[in-house]
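User: structure tokens for this one?
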Amino acid sequence: MRLRLNLLVLAVSSLILVSFLLPLALLLRTFAADRAVSTATSKAQWLAPLAATLSTRDLTLLVARVNAENPGEPTSVFLPGGAILGARAPVTGGVRLAREGNSFSEQVHGGVEVLVAVQGLPAGTAVIRTFVPGGTLTRGVPEAWLTLGLIGLGLIGLGLLVASHLARSMLRPLRAVAMAAETLGSGDLSARAPIGGPPEIRQVGAGLNRLAAQIGQLLAHERETLADMSHRLRTPLTALRIDAESLRSDGERVQLIGDVEALTSTVNEIIREARRPASNGGRIACDAAEVVRERAAFWRALAEDQDRPMAVDISVDWLPVGVAAQDLATCVDVLLENVFSHTPEGVALAVRLTPRAGGGGWLMVADDGPGFPHDGPARRGLSGAGSTGLGLDIAAKIAESSGGSLTFGRSVRGGAAVTIGLGPTLAPAQPPRRYDRVWRHRPRRAMPADARLASELSEWSAIVGHDVNGT
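Assistant:
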């Protein structure tokens, strides 16, 4: 924008100076020529009465003196008898016309000749001729043009300097407002634009700051509302716990109390998550291998209870990704819960985590179930299986917040395959000092399908449209 402003000022100032200086330069040349011709005419007219009164000898001396004083403008006197005094000059058509009593000046080769007729001589009419060469006609014109050109260049330079200063005074606050907008767009709601510059830019900065403050207030209100609503669940949970403790059967009581404790822990986690400050634009790092390993171990017990072959392949011991550990655990739970909720018991499933070449990782969950009905789940809030329809949408938003994505596909056997791309962390992440050994689980019963699922992971990778090996 600064360059465009400078070019605009350059174009406008150039047009103005050209429209002013070009006529002035032509006027100076015309004025110089008129001045030279006027001087020569005055000199010839000064000689006219003398040519009529002086003798030929005196007139010859006078003309010689005049030519000596003005060597660049030779003067000649054509007497009626044909004699020529002063500088030698040809008898041109203008001289013959002047002998008829006409005084004038005309353009000839090399300059302008001034002809003055002198009448009243006994033998006829004499003609005084003064020649003004082209150099005399343009004397001082190149210097004047050079001065005008330097003045024009100086004015253009001054205009560009003023335009650059004005552009800087406008663009600095505008650039600061743009940077504040970029920071706000990255998630840092504490960013504010400095108020400065022209009134319009100050108005834009103030409006952006008010918008950022309003967004922060709305988000804080939303989080507090969510926390309050979640907190209200503690009352029915307390009543449920009291009812559970009143059961007579020890086994049922222990099991129900454990479920209530798990639900209470979930509610507390929701409250903490709701009151967690908004992200400041930097992606929080977590060890995806540890999180996926822990959640897979949690769900494996249910898989064994339902006779589901479950293969888990985590190719690295440590994999930092730009997702909070709680969010990543939510993604894994959502994907595995969909498998357990929407496929019959006994259907095999597989979980695979691999690093990505540009940082981050690929998380894939696939199964041998019926797959998605129409190349993907329903839109947010809708589900064809009695659920809320929000799980995969939540997982997709978590993946997108890290710079990744969520895609759907089908396995070779027609089952569903969901791949989540986890973006890299922006903050430098350091591996733990002691690497945990790759988690291996020995099932309680032999599951021949585990080996089959592990071998089919590469085939599922091609189906879902992503190279989960990180290339």
